[in-house]
Amino acid sequence: MREAATMKPIWRVKRTAAAYHRALPKPTVSRLLVYAAALIVLFLIVCALAPQWIARYSPTDMQADQILLPPGAAHWMGTDYFGRDVFSVIVYGARESLFIGFASVIVGGLSGGAIGALSGYFGGRVDNALMRVIDVLMTIPSVMLALAVAAALGPGLWNIILAVALSTVPNYARIMRGQILSIKNRPFIMASRSIGAAEFPVFIRHVLPNSLSPLLVMAAIGVGTSILTGSGLSFLGLGELKEIPDWGALLSQGRGYLTVAWWICTFPGLAITLFVLSVNVIGDALRDALDPKKRRS
Predict the structure, then answer these.
(1) Cβ distance 118 to 211 under 8 Å?
(2) Stated pTM of the model
(3) DSSP letters for 38-81
(4) Mean per-residue pLDDT for 108-133?
(5) Would you say the C-alpha torsion 122, 221, 54, 58 has a positive or negative sign?
(6) Quick count: other Cβ atoms within 10 Å of Cβ 96?
């Protein structure tokens, strides 16, 4: 009798397992795309942080007897005109390419977000002065603005980051200003002011946290756009000349061999395409997750 009392009923275990199985999200096509995009982004980040774990050869190892070899078992993506393994050069070049994308989004997002927040919350002359500057910047296409700034500053990694970041500031400022304007006069903000709360604590504790969702979504998508713009500037020769080039410089260096060694340009371009497409998929999923209307449905 004592043994029977201590034994757990089998039906309870089965019911718990079935309930757990029903609670799992159903594998839809959109979820599988997000998981695949996350794996691609994670793999490229690992390539940037620890390329020696991924690459089989050194990116500076030049072998004169293996120049322009097509993709094969020894060299998965072939070799270039110096006899370097293309896969290893792409893996090691991911560090600078991803750094340009993430750093420019951080600089541009913080700068544009601060401008939009100040403009939307204080209004009046502050809003007019800041928005007129943003309007002037928005009249110039972002790629042309980045190209002009990079050409004025000269070749260099940080110059490309500043150029790409400056080209994204107007978009972040407009998004942030619109969010602040829609939130600062809502009832819960007015209630905080009515009980005597100061303007700055209200802005920091209530207005700003409720305005960050669109900015985060735009930043997630903007990483891919920034890498694309930075690669374009490197392709035009405005990047930093280094022994291990980034993806844009690889495209520029391999364009002269496109008819005889297509793999030198194809695989760096494929890496850029996969990363940009993956962060766009993740950004769309993040937008859907942060959208209160879709959460309610």
Answers:
(1) no
(2) 0.82
(3) HHHHHHHHHHHH-GGGT-SS-TT---GGGTTPPS-SSSTT-B-T
(4) 90
(5) negative
(6) 23
